[in-house]
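Sat 14:20. Reprocessing the chain from the morning session after the first attempt stalled halfway. Input below, unchanged.
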Amino acid sequence: MANIQPIGSRVLVKRLEAEEVSAGGIVLPDTAKEKPQEAEVVALGTGGKDDSGNTIEFTVKVGDKVLISKYGGTDVKLDGQDMLILSESDILGIIS
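Finished this time. Tokens:
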């Protein structure tokens, strides 16, 4: 996989696969599927800074499964895999 290091308080995530079948048993074509809101953290940025210039620690870590904002981030393709770079503030929660 190509190496990419997000900068600042950005996070690189890989979306987890969406459901192929609806709750009623209907197979969904790719065009009807919503983008999944669950993702796995792949890489962390260099960290944000507060008003005093101190580094702000990330709440998430590499490998965490997270719930992300539906329309946040920028889609990127790395070695044929769809990834997303987003601000840590676009992460809504950690899935346990």
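The chain has a mean pLDDT of 84.
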